[in-house]
Amino acid sequence: MERILEQLPRFLSQRNLVLLAEAAGMTLAMTAAGCLIGFLLAFVIVYLRQTPGRWALPVRLACIAYVEIFRRIPFLVIIYLVLFTIPLVLRDASLFVIAVVSICIYATAYISEIIRGGIESVPRQQVEAAATMNLGRLQTTLWVVLPQAMPVIVPPAVAFGVSFIKDTALVSQIGMFELTFRGKELNNQGYSAVLVFGTIAFVYFLMSWPLNLWGQYLEKRLAAPRSQRRRRTLRQP
Amino acid sequence: MPHLEVRDVVARYGSHEVLSGVSLDVDRGEVVALVGPSGSGKSTVLRVLVGLLQPVSGSVRVGGQAVDYRSAGQVRAIRNRMAIVFQQYNLFQNMDVMRNVTLAPIRIKRRDRREVETLAVALLERVGLGQKLHAFPDELSGGQQQRVAIARALALRPEILLLDEVTSALDPELVNEVLDVIRDLAREGMTMILVSHEMAFVREVADRVVMMDKGQVIESGPPAEILDAPRTERAREFFGKILRH
Hints:
The complex is a heterodimer. By secondary structure, chain A is an all-alpha fold. Helices cover 77% and strands 0% of the residues of chain A. In chain A, helix 2 (14-49) crosses helix 5 (95-120), helix 6 packs antiparallel against helix 7 (137-167) and helix 7 (137-167) runs antiparallel to helix 9 (193-223). Chain B is built from nine helices and ten strands. A six-stranded mixed β-sheet of chain B has the order 6-7-8-3-9-10, with helices on both faces. Chain B has a four-stranded antiparallel β-sheet with strand order 2-1-4-5, covered by helices on one side.
C-alpha cells in the first residue's frame, strides 16, 4: 500500500496518462471498427443464409458453417489464426488491421445470430403481404422486415459490442498497443501491478459504462410504438 | 368465357392435402363468395391464386391465359392483376397509412408519384380515413386498419380483388364499416372473391355462393339457392349450424 501511494504521483505523470488515453482510444477504435464492419457483414451472412432454392444450398451451408465454427472458437485462437494467415493475403498487415479483422470475424458470427433472431421476430404475414404486392426479396428485407426487426436487433448487438471492449484485451497477446498491453509495459517498468491494473480496470469500466447506458436508452426508445418516436419524414421514398 | 377459371386444383401443406381438385369460375364484375367450415380450404384457394402456395396440379386461367405458378415471372404477372386483403390486415407496421398505400404502386409498378398520391388520398377518403393519412397502423382500430388494407389493395388497380375473411378479426361493432366499403365496391362492378362467415352479407352482395368442404367444392349457385335450399346433406348441416342463431 505504501509503495502504491509512493508511486502514485510518478505513475500519474502526464506521459503515462497520455499513453493510457491513447491505448484506451486504440481499444475503442478497434472494437468499434471490428464490430461495425462485423454488423454489416452479419446482415450479408443472414441474407445469404436465407436464400431460397436448391441451387443456393452450398451458399446456405457455407454461411451456417461460418457462424457455427467461429462462435465456437476461443477469440484468442481466432487472433492467432488471423496473425498467421493474413500474410498470405496481405503483406505487411499492421497489428491494428490484424486486430480489427479478428474482432470482425468473431463479431460477424455472433451478431448474425442476433440479426437472424430479430428477423424471425417479424410476423411472416408481413413478408407474405409484401410478396403479393410484388416486392422482391431484397426490397421486402430492406423496406419491411429490417425496419421492424431493428428494435429487436440493436439492443443486444450494442450489448455485444460493449462487452467486447473488454475481450479485446486478448489482442495484447500479439503485441498490439492497446490498453492491456500498455498496462503490462508499465508493470514491467516497475510500477505496482495493483496500481497499474487497478487503473486499467477503471479505464475499461469508464469506457463501457456510458456505452452500456446508451444501449439501455436505445432499447427503451426503440421499444416505444413507432408512432410515438420522432417522425423521420426525410426517409419517405 | 369466365375471366378467372380454376380447374381441378390440388394443393398441399407438406403431406396434408388442403385442396383436392377445386374448380371455380368467376366472370368479370362478378362477386363470388366462398363459404364453408374452417379448414375446408377457402382461404387456401385465395393463397393459391396469388401465388403464396404453389398448386401441385390443376390449372388456373386468367383472361383465357394459363398461369404457370412455377414461373416467377408469371407469378409476378398474376400478382399485378390480383390484390388480396388479409384477415389480419397485414399493414406494414413501420410505415404510415399513405406510404402503405403508395409504396407498391410507386416503387414496384413505377407509376407516377403524383398520380398515385392523388389516387391514394381519394381512396382513403372513400373508405372514411381522409383524416388518418399519416397515422401509423398501431394508432388505428382494427376496422380502420382493414379499411386502409382495402385502399392499399385498390391502389394496385387489380382486375380481381380477393378478400380473405376480412371481418373475422374485427370487434363486432367495427364489422359494418368494412362491409360498407365492400358493398360499395360490389355495386361499382368490382370483380371479387370473398371468403366470409357473414352469411347475411354474403346473401346481400354475392352473385354466386360456392360452398366448400374438405378441400372440395360441394355446391355452387345463387345465394338464395345455396343458402336456403342446399342440395347436399353436408351443406344443410353447415348452414343449419350457422344460420340457426
